[in-house]
Write a structure and sequence with these properties.
This protein has 596 residues and is α/β, with parallel strands linked by helices. It has three domains: 317 residues, ABC transporter involved in vitamin B12 uptake, BtuC (Orthogonal Bundle), CATH 1.10.3470; 168 residues, Rossmann fold, CATH 3.40.50; 77 residues, no CATH class. Helices cover 54% and strands 13% of the residues. It contains 23 helices and 16 strands. The strands form five sheets. A six-stranded mixed sheet has the order 12-13-14-9-15-16, with helices on both faces. A hairpin with a 2-residue loop joins strand 7 and strand 8. Helix 7 crosses helix 16, helix 11 crosses helix 12 and helix 16 crosses helix 19. The chain is elongated.
C-alpha cells in the first residue's frame, strides 16, 4: 500500500522544487519556466471562471494587455514622474484600471447566456486588442519601450532567473488564494453555479454577484501576469494580447483540467513546452516554416476533449497517493442565530386567485390554498395538472399573471427567489439538484449561505474562518437531524436516490426556514425509502415546521398529510382532509378516468 501524502505536503514539495529549479536549470529553461508561470496565472483565473463557474471566456489575453500597458504607461510617462515611475505604482494602477474595465465588461457580458456569452468575450477581446494598437499614447502597433525592471528591496530584477522567483511567488500566492476561496462559503456559492442558477438562487446565493466576483478575480490574475510580462520583456506591443492568445489560454485551462487549480499549471506547462519544441522541430521535418504547431494543437485539443474531458490533471492525480483531508467540525463553534417559528396554526403561506398564463395557455387558473404552521399540506394531481407551475409561483421562481402569493402576510410576487429564501422559505426540487463531486457536508452548507456575510476577499485571505466553522457546524447538525451523519464526508453523487432527496431536505433546513416546499420528494423512491422520508417529515412537523409537498403518489400522501388540495388542468377540483378527498368523485375520475 502506497503511503498517503497530505495536500500540504504536496504543496511543500512543489515549493521546494520551484525554489531549487534555478540552481540546476540553464538560462533557456529558466526563461521557459517564466513563460509557464505567466501563462499559469491567466489559466488559473480561467479555472475559476470556466472550470468552476461554468463561464467560458476567450478574452483573457486582453486583460493581460490592460495590466501590461497600464504599467508601461505609468513607468515611462512624465505624467507619473511624481510617483517615481515605479513599477509597483504601475502594478496598483493596473489592478485598479483592470477592475474598472472588468466591472463594466462583466456588467454587460454576464447578462448573456448560452453561446452568446463566449461570443461576447470574443467581441470585447478583439476590441481591446485593437485599442492597444490604435492608441497613439500606447505606441500604436510599434509598442512601448524603455520599461524599467522591478525593484524588490533594492534588488533589481533585470535577469530571467531573478524575476523567476517573483513570477512564481505571485503564482503560488494566487494558487493559495484560489484554494482558500473555493474552500469557503463564497467558494461553495461559486461551485453551486454548475448546479444551475435556479438551485443556487433558491439557496440564497446571489448568482450575479458570484459570477461577477470570479470574472473580476480572473481579470486581476491576467492583469498581474501582464504586469510581470511587461517588466520581464521591458517592451510591450499588442501582438501577445490578441484573440489567438486568448484561445490558447483557454486551451491551457481545459487541457490541464479546468476544474482543478493544479490543472492550470499542467496545461500551461504542456502547451508552453510543446509550443517551443514544435516550433523548432516541425519546420525541420517539413522543410519549410509555418504555424504547424497550431495545427497540431488543434488535433491535440480534439483528442483531449474526446478521451479526457476533465483534462490531464485528474489522470495524473490518480497516480499520486494524496490523502484528501476531511473537513473538521468544531463542536464548540458558536451556534448560528435561529429563527423563532410561528405558533402552531398560524397562516404561513397563502395563494389568492393565482393565475399563470403562457400566451393563450392557462397553466394555473384562480388557484387558492393556505398553509399553516405545524401542518403538512399536499398539492396533488395527475401529470400535467399544473402543480409544478404553481409551485414556482409559490417559491418566487415565477410571478403570477394575476392574483397574489402572501408569505408571512407579505406579498412575494416579483421578488427574487433568494429574497424569499431569506424570509424563511426553502425548497427541494423535482429532479435532484446536487453538486455530485462535493461532499454531503459541503452540499448542505450551501443552504446556510445567507446566514454568513464574509465576502470573496475575506475568503481568499482566510479571514472568515470563525464564520466558516459556524456554518459547517450548522450543516453537520442538519445532516445529523435527517439521519445522514455517517455519510457526512461522502461525495453526494455516490448516494442512492432516496439519500439524495433526504440530503436536499437537509440543505433546505440549513437555511433555517419556517416553511419547506418539497417538489415530489417521494419520486423514484422504494417502499422503505418512502417510509424513512415520511418519518422525517412527521418529525419536522412535530417541531413546528410548515410543509407543502407537491406529489402525485396518493398512497404516500394520504397517510402523512393533514390537508390535501387536488389539481387538474390548472385548477383546483377538490380539497379537504385526506379521507374525504379519497372518496371525492372528481378526484377518482382525475386519477382513474372515472369509476363504475
Amino acid at each position: 500500500m502506497k503511503p498517503l501524502l497530505s495536500s500540504r505536503m504536496v504543496l511543500g514539495v512543489f515549493i521546494v522544487l520551484i525554489a531549487a529549479t534555478p540552481l540546476v536549470m540553464s538560462p533557456f529553461y529558466i526563461t521557459l519556466l517564466n513563460y509557464i508561470g505567466l501563462a499559469a496565472l491567466v489559466a488559473l483565473g480561467l479555472v475559476l471562471l470556466t472550470g468552476i463557474g461554468n463561464l467560458t471566456s476567450f478574452g483573457q489575453a486582453a486583460f493581460v494587455g490592460v495590466g501590461a500597458y497600464s504599467t508601461a504607461f505609468v513607468t515611462t510617462s512624465s505624467s507619473f514622474a511624481w510617483l517615481g515611475n515605479s513599477p509597483w505604482a504601475g502594478f496598483i494602477i493596473g489592478l485598479l484600471i483592470t477592475s474598472a474595465v472588468a466591472l463594466i465588461l462583466g456588467a454587460i457580458t454576464l447578462k448573456l447566456s448560452g453561446h452568446f456569452l463566449p461570443l461576447g468575450t470574443i467581441a470585447w477581446g478583439i476590441s481591446l486588442y485593437y485599442l492597444f494598437g490604435t492608441a497613439e499614447a500606447l505606441g500604436g502597433h510599434t509598442g512601448m519601450t524603455g520599461i524599467p525592471p522591478i525593484l524588490v528591496l533594492g534588488w533589481v530584477l533585470d535577469q530571467g532567473y531573478e524575476i523567476y522567483y517573483l513570477i512564481w511567488a505571485f503564482l503560488l500566492a494566487a494558487i493559495i488564494n484560489t484554494k482558500n476561496l473555493l474552500d469557503s462559503r463564497e467558494g461553495r456559492a461559486i461551485r453551486a453555479l454548475k448546479g444551475g442558477r435556479i438551485m443556487a438562487e433558491a439557496m440564497g446565493v446571489n448568482t450575479l454577484y458570484s459570477r461577477m466576483a470570479i470574472f473580476l478575480f480572473a481579470a486581476l490574475h491576467a492583469s498581474t501576469s501582464g504586469w510581470l510580462y511587461a517588466h520581464m520583456q521591458r517592451f510591450v506591443n499588442p501582438t501577445p494580447f490578441n484573440i489567438h492568445n486568448g484561445i490558447e489560454y483557454l486551451f491551457m485551462a481545459v487541457i490541464g483540467g479546468a476544474s482543478s487549480v493544479w490543472g492550470a499549471i499542467v496545461g500551461s506547462s504542456l502547451i508552453t513546452i510543446l509550443k517551443q519544441w514544435l516550433q523548432d522541430l516541425l519546420p525541420k521535418l517539413f522543410g519549410q516554416n509555418g504555424n504547424f504547431e497550431v495545427i497540431l494543437f488543434g488535433l491535440i485539443m480534439i483528442i483531449v476533449l474526446q478521451r479526457a474531458q476533465n483534462g490531464l490533471w485528474p489522470l495524473l492525480a490518480k497516480l499520486l497517493p494524496v490523502q484528501h483531508e476531511l473537513k473538521t467540525i468544531n463542536p464548540h463553534a458558536e451556534p448560528l442565530a435561529q429563527r423563532t417559528l410561528p405558533t402552531h396554526g398560524e397562516v404561513i403561506l397563502e395563494a389568492k386567485n393565482v393565475t399563470r398564463k403562457f400566451g393563450g395557455l392557462i397553466a394555473n387558473n384562480n388557484m387558492n390554498l393556505t398553509v399553516h404552521a405545524g401542518e403538512i399540506l399536499a398539492l396533488i394531481g395527475p401529470n400535467g395538472a399544473g402543480k409544478s407551475t404553481l409551485f414556482n409561483q409559490l417559491s418566487g421562481v415565477d410571478t403570477p399573471s394575476s392574483g397574489e402569493v402572501l408569505f408571512l402576510g407579505k406579498p412575494i410576487g416579483g421578488l427574487q427567489s433568494r429574497t424569499v429564501a431569506a424570509m424563511g422559505m426553502s425548497r427541494t426540487f423535482q429532479h435532484v439538484k446536487l453538486l455530485p463531486t462535493m461532499t454531503v457536508l459541503e452540499n448542505v452548507a450551501i443552504g446556510a449561505h445567507q446566514r454568513g456575510h464574509k465576502g470573496v476577499f475575506s475568503a481568499a485571505w482566510r479571514l472568515e474562518r470563525a464564520e466558516e466553522e459556524r456554518l459547517l457546524a450548522e450543516a453537520a447538525r442538519q445532516i445529523e437531524r435527517v439521519g445522514l451523519k455517517e455519510l457526512m464526508h461522502v461525495e453526494a453523487g455516490s448516494l442512492a436516490l432516496g439519500q439524495q432527496r433526504i440530503l436536499e431536505i437537509a440543505r433546505a433546513l440549513c437555511s433555517d426556514p419556517c416553511l419547506l416546499l418539497l417538489d415530489e420528494p417521494a419520486a423514484g423512491l422504494r417502499h422503505l425509502e418512502k417510509q424513512a422520508l415520511a418519518d422525517l417529515l412527521r418529525r419536522l412537523k412535530a417541531q413546528g415546521m410548515a410543509i407543502l409537498l407537491v406529489e402525485h403518489d396518493m398512497d404516500f400522501v394520504m397517510g402523512l398529510v393533514d390537508y390535501v388540495v387536488v389539481m387538474e388542468f390548472g385548477q383546483k377540483i377538490a380539497e379537504g382532509l385526506p379521507e374525504a378527498v379519497q372518496q371525492n368523485q372528481a378526484v377518482l375520475e382525475a386519477y382513474l378516468g372515472g369509476v363504475e
